[in-house]
């Protein structure tokens, strides 16, 4: 169905029920497909990934036509940044296809058995990596997520139900057609990846309320979407909330490294979750570091907001930082700066105000580095490296479905492994207790 | 406080608020203690475990006196099985102490870094095993859980808030005093393990609603408790629901092994979650297996409930099995029996009616074994071994906090590793992107 049910005023509860029934049907099909996918051969999964890539390139024109329709529909409703993210072109379609081929090239994560050891009883116990089952992904604007998420779910032997934003509905359906084509070409179940057609919000609620058909939900998008999903989902959620990342420049920091890392962590990209939002500097090196660093940041167009000591050092032209600044994920050319007495105070600040995403220390002192790494309770903790490295590709995961700020299951960048689980396998020869 | 606030009629909302405030206070203390515990040396944690063991033995008399009080209070309210689980004696206290010493002897799970590899960018990326933070444990009747759970949380560098059942309140407090003593003796924070004193149910609700202070909840007890916790907890839950375990006897089974495994899986203990509840037998071997097996089970006092074909084979004295039987966790000397056409039908039955806990195949055929292991989506899948082996000690985990039927994070028997998470650690030398 392609009609937007939210437009059918006056019969809302009826249409809501219809949508629930549709989503339930997708769920049942996904559950069935998941069992076939769990047993699929690595070669068949890779063949499907290559076939989808081929279909994307072959159907470039129809994808671009669908995308043009979304862009036209969004022209008056969406801001420039959103339109930019929505837009596809030859290069972006080629990138999507290349992404699929790269996922095909990754090692197959499924079915491997590790730690298969004999126990005193005589049984042999190991753990086998297996798919989670059905993954629900709820995302916004970027149509390339449709292809990326499908690729990761497929490679990891899961079935997927994808629900993109209404603003990209036509683009997503055009990409979905290529995915179905690729799955069918490789003799894998077409229902292994289903893209929800209706753009009604009731579809999201329906997905969140069927734990019998969806094993885990991955929301990708703005904070509002993620909080909504986390609050209402009846199944586990792999989610990414704030990225309030810190760089702490220690007494024993190398000045050149410190400045290079701080500039890179703040300015390489402003809108990413692993961008530094607060800089902490040990007071013993504050003058030496902050004088040149503030000039570099100023030149890059970054606004500084400082604690009292920072303002005393750099002058009253620096805006004062309030508690709200310590908690803020700016996602913009703004940096909060605080001078601390020592590492303990820096760690205290990070644990109090941070979001447990990514935090770094710059130091030449190995004892400090060891202590910082132990004490900071974040998904990624770094020594002498830019926070911008916290990323699935940089970590060697090959691809990522997101970055998790949860502690259980997947933590930090989530690649194929995060879409799998380990079950115990036991081999005996008639063994009993 | 030791007064039972639920008895103070007429001021319920006020007392509820008081309890919430008390539990919040425990939460704040636990969060603080968790940071110290995360950095605690293995030697100090082990010293605390030994000191707690010593305190339990040294204070045996006061523990037994407290337990006698619980037994007296419960005499008219609790059934015999519950009273039996509640009762402590010299031997059980010695077992608790021995359990603590065994946990001390396990390898320390915290701080180890694995997979520390160089990336093309020049950074080195690895994963460090770290505690989860604060573990909340809500349990019923058995006072030994107080010591067992405390030991596992302590060894894994977490802080714990333990909430035992009201029927064991005095026993739990006596054990708690020993835990506090042991922690203090080893110079670890006494708040690392806190036992909730109030027996009011409002304390449970208060725990479930403070995700800022409790990182994960582990409910241990009856299904009602676990479902209540899973529904209301605002933090992740490591939970164990049903154990509807199957043994499938394949066409290619060795008859002697099949009978030995089936008898053991059903009769070694009736009340455990890894006990077989349904037996599936391939029709080609049904007569050969079921005739002698039914006699063995009959002698052991097990009631059989069979499908039509089973009743045709064994006679109408066998009760008919309904759909409700396939879904039932009897926890009793009752076994449902079904004759299936082939392995595919057995797997279909397990996936339809099972609880994804533990399922076994008995076969000499390696292709069947491989296919069964891949297709059955359970926490433990076994070949030629009794389902009764699904247990943390048998698997070599050293100890277990429970058996998880969830797919995310911990699956199957949960030992120390289930109470930890992995964070990424990155080492550079001034590296930027």
UniProtKB/TrEMBL annotation, chains A, B:
<feature type="domain" description="Aldehyde dehydrogenase">
    <location>
        <begin position="326"/>
        <end position="390"/>
    </location>
</feature>
<dbReference type="InterPro" id="IPR016161">
    <property type="entry name" value="Ald_DH/histidinol_DH"/>
</dbReference>
<dbReference type="InterPro" id="IPR020593">
    <property type="entry name" value="G-glutamylP_reductase_CS"/>
</dbReference>
<dbReference type="GO" id="GO:0004350">
    <property type="term" value="F:glutamate-5-semialdehyde dehydrogenase activity"/>
</dbReference>
<dbReference type="Pfam" id="PF00171">
    <property type="entry name" value="Aldedh"/>
</dbReference>
<dbReference type="InterPro" id="IPR000965">
    <property type="entry name" value="GPR_dom"/>
</dbReference>
<dbReference type="InterPro" id="IPR016163">
    <property type="entry name" value="Ald_DH_C"/>
</dbReference>
<dbReference type="InterPro" id="IPR012134">
    <property type="entry name" value="Glu-5-SA_DH"/>
</dbReference>
<keyword id="KW-0963">Cytoplasm</keyword>
<comment type="function">
    <text>Catalyzes the NADPH-dependent reduction of L-glutamate 5-phosphate into L-glutamate 5-semialdehyde and phosphate. The product spontaneously undergoes cyclization to form 1-pyrroline-5-carboxylate.</text>
</comment>
<keyword id="KW-0641">Proline biosynthesis</keyword>
<dbReference type="InterPro" id="IPR016162">
    <property type="entry name" value="Ald_DH_N"/>
</dbReference>
<keyword id="KW-0028">Amino-acid biosynthesis</keyword>
<keyword id="KW-0560">Oxidoreductase</keyword>
<comment type="pathway">
    <text>Amino-acid biosynthesis; L-proline biosynthesis; L-glutamate 5-semialdehyde from L-glutamate: step 2/2.</text>
</comment>
<protein>
    <recommendedName>
        <fullName>Gamma-glutamyl phosphate reductase</fullName>
        <ecNumber>1.2.1.41</ecNumber>
    </recommendedName>
</protein>
<feature type="domain" description="Aldehyde dehydrogenase">
    <location>
        <begin position="20"/>
        <end position="303"/>
    </location>
</feature>
<dbReference type="InterPro" id="IPR015590">
    <property type="entry name" value="Aldehyde_DH_dom"/>
</dbReference>
<keyword id="KW-0521">NADP</keyword>
<comment type="similarity">
    <text>Belongs to the gamma-glutamyl phosphate reductase family.</text>
</comment>
């Amino acid at each position: 169905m392609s009609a937007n049910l939210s437009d059918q005023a006056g019969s809302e509860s009826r249409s809501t029920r219809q949508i629930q029934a549709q989503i339930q049907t997708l769920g049942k099909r996904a559950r069935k497909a998941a069992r076939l996918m769990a047993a699929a051969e690595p070669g068949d999964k890779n063949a499907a990934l290559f076939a989808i890539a081929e279909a994307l390139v072959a159907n470039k024109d129809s994808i671009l036509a669908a995308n043009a329709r979304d862009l036209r529909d969004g022209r008056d409703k969406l801001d420039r940044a959103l339109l930019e993210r929505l837009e596809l072109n030859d290069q972006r379609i080629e990138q999507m296809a290349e992404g699929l081929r790269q996922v095909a090239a990754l090692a197959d994560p499924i079915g491997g058995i590790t730690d298969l050891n004999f126990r005193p009883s005589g049984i042999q116990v190991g753990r086998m990596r297996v798919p989670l089952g059905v993954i629900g992904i709820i995302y916004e604007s970027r149509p390339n997520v449709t292809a990326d998420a499908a690729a990761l779910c497929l490679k990891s032997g899961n079935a997927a139900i994808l629900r993109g934003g209404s603003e990209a509905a036509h683009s997503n359906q055009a990409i979905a057609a290529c995915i179905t084509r690729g799955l069918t070409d490789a003799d894998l179940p077409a229902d292994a990846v289903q893209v929800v057609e209706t753009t009604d919000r009731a579809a999201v609620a329906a997905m969140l309320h069927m734990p019998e058909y969806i094993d885990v939900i991955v929301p990708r998008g703005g904070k509002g979407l993620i909080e909504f999903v986390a609050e209402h989902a009846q199944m586990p959620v792999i989610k990414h909330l704030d990225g309030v990342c810190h760089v702490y420049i220690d007494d024993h920091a190398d000045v050149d490294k410190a400045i290079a890392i701080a500039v890179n962590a703040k300015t390489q990209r402003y809108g990413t979750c692993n961008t530094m939002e607060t800089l902490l500097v040990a007071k013993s090196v504050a003058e030496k570091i902050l004088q040149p660093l503030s000039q570099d940041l100023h030149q890059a167009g970054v606004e500084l907001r400082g604690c009292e000591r920072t303002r005393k050092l750099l002058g009253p032209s620096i805006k004062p930082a309030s508690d709200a600044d310590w908690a803020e994920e700016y996602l913009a050319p703004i940096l909060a700066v605080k001078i601390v007495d020592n590492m303990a105070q820096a760690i205290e600040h990070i644990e109090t105000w941070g979001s447990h995403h990514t935090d770094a220390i710059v130091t030449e002192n190995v004892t400090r580095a060891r202590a910082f790494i132990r004490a900071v309770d974040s998904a990624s903790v770094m020594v002498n490296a830019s926070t911008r490295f916290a990323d699935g590709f940089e970590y060697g995961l090959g691809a990522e479905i997101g970055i998790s700020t949860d502690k259980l299951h997947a933590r930090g960048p989530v690649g194929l492994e995060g879409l799998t689980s380990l079950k115990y396998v036991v081999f005996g020869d008639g063994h009993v207790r």
